[in-house]
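New to this. Please check both lines:
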Amino acid sequence: MAYTTIANVKLNHEMIPDTAASDAIIAMHIPMVDSYIDGKLRGKFELPFTTTPAVIQMIALDMVTFRTLRSLYSAQSESYDSWLDEYKDPAEQQLQDIADCKITFDSSEATQYTRIRSNTSGKEAIFNLADPVEQDYHPTDGDDRYGEE
């Protein structure tokens, strides 16, 4: 399921004309942006989202709007590039903040994978995130293969 629609993109900016050509440009950019967002969030969230979080819809809308406006107007003037970046830059930053877990979702909106995983259970952790400097670890402690106890 796409994170935004052609109709929403047209409503997002008055300079996007209501033509079949604009619809085709928007339709081309929607799957590209969806794939980009999924690529940034893959491995951090269970994808596809059961319910797409509103912030993801907003980011996708701004990114598709940016790409559409760039396709339509960037050749006209260099001043358009900085104007267009007003759509791209905040959306990129928000997406990166989500990927870095600085922005979180309601648990009903997305399933976030835990960041630290272990393939062992019932073992005492040798690294302590609360005190990363003082690690009580010796490579042969408690290992009978080395004849030490």
Summary: Helices lie at 6-12, 20-41, 54-73, 79-99. The chain has a mean pLDDT of 79. Residues 121 and 146 are 23 Å apart (CA to CA). Residues 20-41 form the longest helix (22 residues).
